[in-house]
Design goal:
Length: 285
């Protein structure tokens, strides 16, 4: 995958080009070109108005391809994220970001992942803005925007969002009152707006992932010297420090090359050799 001196297409409605351009330019010699006419919400939206029909990697790949088609380029990049409970640590929210680069010249598709434990992802049901004050401070409002809709009983389902990207307290107060008036429970449902341009914490994660992708593309395969040797899988089974039995935590990283298929294994980069018993399914079921 030859990068230096090439143009690379990106399609985003949420300002991601601002954090992708510098790593790609300085690390790989690529010039990022924004395909502003592409509506990326067609591939799925965070607010749920348009469901994401494919997994995160394929969705990002389709975004990159749409940007390439729109600009007539043979190199494209796109990111996709999802948020929810941490896969290993209970009661902890996490964000899963992926960055996909598609090179039609070489036929390669390279994917880099980042599991983000630093996230403000959250939601709350309230009857007033004063009742939400503690939660708003916790999620970083007003620097981080929120979305508002009427709260509904679980059997009824979700109501449409009344407002997204809310950053002003006075505006939020009005939308909460409106949502409470429409809710059979008399409450508004507030949720963090996880679109990148509304969420500085997520934007920082995408920047971090971009630098990680650049480092990977500068890493040659030890077997065939193709660029892009990096982590492609993980092996779980990190033992519990008390009972010694395998946990669901990652024990080793699997490094691989998508060109020749070479694979190697390495220990966790953080040096952790055992998991605390509080995270063990046997010691703390």
């Amino acid at each position: 995958m030859e990068c230096s001196g090439r143009d690379i297409a990106v399609a985003t409605l949420h300002g991601k080009q601002r954090v992708l351009a510098r790593p790609l330019r300085q690390g790989l010699g690529l010039r990022l070109v924004h395909a502003s006419a592409v509506d990326t919400d067609q591939f799925g939206s965070f607010c749920g108005a348009q469901p994401r029909r494919l997994d995160a990697v394929l969705t990002a790949q389709r975004k990159a391809e749409a940007a390439m088609d729109a600009l007539g380029l043979d190199l494209g990049i796109a990111s996709e994220g999802s948020f929810g409970p941490h896969p290993s640590v209970s009661m902890l929210a996490a964000g899963a970001e992926c960055l996909v680069i598609v090179d039609r010249r070489s036929g390669r598709v390279l994917v880099e992942h980042l599991l983000c434990t630093v996230t403000n992802y959250g939601a709350i049901a309230v009857a007033s803005v004063d009742a939400a004050q503690g939660w708003l401070a916790q999620v970083g409002f007003p620097a981080h925007a929120v979305m508002v809709r009427p709260d509904q009983p679980p059997v009824v389902g979700f109501s449409p969002w009344l407002a997204k990207g809310v950053r002003q307290r006075s505006e939020l107060e009005d939308w909460i009152a409106c949502a409470c008036a429409q809710s059979p429970l008399g409450q508004a449902w507030l949720e963090t707006d996880m679109r990148a341009h509304c969420n500085p914490t997520r934007m920082a994660s995408i920047r971090r992932l971009a630098f990680r992708l650049v480092r990977r593309l500068r890493q040659p395969c030890p077997a065939c010297a193709a660029p892009g040797f990096g982590v492609v899988d993980a092996v779980s089974g990190l033992p519990c420090s008390a009972c010694g039995l395998a946990s669901g935590w990652v024990m080793q990283q699997v490094w691989g090359c998508d060109v020749c298929g070479h694979r190697t294994r390495s220990p966790r980069p953080d040096g952790l050799r055992a998991v605390d018993p509080m995270h063990c399914d046997y010691c703390n079921p």
